[in-house]
Automatic annotation (TrEMBL):
Name recorded for this polypeptide: DUF4440 domain-containing protein
Domain DUF4440: residue ranges: 26-134
InterPro entries recorded: DUF4440, NTF2-like_dom_sf
Superkingdom: Bacteria
Amino acid sequence: MRFVLYLILLIAPVTVLRAQQPETAIKALLQQQTRGWNQGNLEAFMQTYWQSDSLVFIGKHGPTYGWQKTLDRYKQSYPDTSAMGKLNFNLLEIRPLSSEVYFVVGKWHLQRTAGDLEGHFTLIIKRIKDAWKIIADHSS
């Protein structure tokens, strides 16, 4: 009996650590995204997205498919650092759908001299080749 209890106490922290690692990586991904945006670097911001024609971004203009088309849409909507402002995320929920796929809900806020913008987002984030990438983004 002591052996079983000892084994559980030994394994439990490892299990908890494994469960936290994806959430930590996802938070780091979104911090990377914020840094790129706040530096006025849309290409750095887009490195957090899956570089695939299967990427889907849904915004106020409807769905955009593909990494390059999503980058082009961002460049059109935010042509300079003044239009971009400073980005801040508030994460509301990070929920595993599987060990390799997570559902994320949050709020975004842009502080700008032309007037602040804000809204909500849902993301599907997937581990692809040992890196977490946004494969679907619905921001409104």
